[in-house]
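Long-time lurker. I teach an intro course on protein structure, and each term I like to show students one example going from raw sequence to a predicted 3D structure in token notation. This year I'd like something fresh instead of my usual example. Would anyone be willing to generate the tokens for the chain below so I can use it in lecture? Attribution to the forum is fine with me.
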Amino acid sequence: MGIFTRVKRIVTADVHELLDKAENPISLLNQYMRELDEQVGKAKDALAQQLYLEKRQEQLVAETAAVVAKRTRQAELAVAKGEDTMAKLALQEKLQAETRLNLFKEQLEAMKQQTVKIHEQIDVLLEKYSELSYKRLVLVSRAHAAKVQQQTQAAIASFSADSAVKGFNRVEEYVQKLEAQAAAGAYFVPAAPAVSVEVQEAVERELAKLKESK
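-- Reply from a regular --
Happy to contribute to a lecture. Here you go:
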């Protein structure tokens, strides 16, 4: 079938050759997977059509077999009644129906063999599709990891350790200046005057008087 010939072309060596020449192999790989998706859909449609035709052929065989049986009964009944002319007509139609029945049966058998082949081809297609889908997932994941690694290496290569150390040193000097300014400012803040024992006792006496007056 054309579908399976197309699929075979997709998964053979020409894919590898095109991937080698492509600027972006991942994009080309995605394109082939989309093409495989399309071919899988066509294969499903082909199988559905084949099964439909096989059912129609089975129905045709059953209907023709019923005609053979019916004409046989009619011929037997006509003979029983002594109606030879009717019996001959029934037998003639019976023979014609038997000829068609044999032909329909042969066609049905050929259809069934073709259906088996289609099933086998679709099984191979689905197996290959599953294999390629998993392989694509792995390759895309590996490509992403490789790109991240390249970006990390580029960032490390462009990073200047000396420049960073100098920057931190400048910040440290700035903080030290702020701390020195704060310490110097604290030195010039006047301390709170000390309270003598006599003053404290006088305050206590005044407090007691206030409480008594209340």
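Some talking points for your students: Helices lie at 2-11, 13-21, 25-81, 84-158, 161-187, 197-213. The mean pLDDT is 82.
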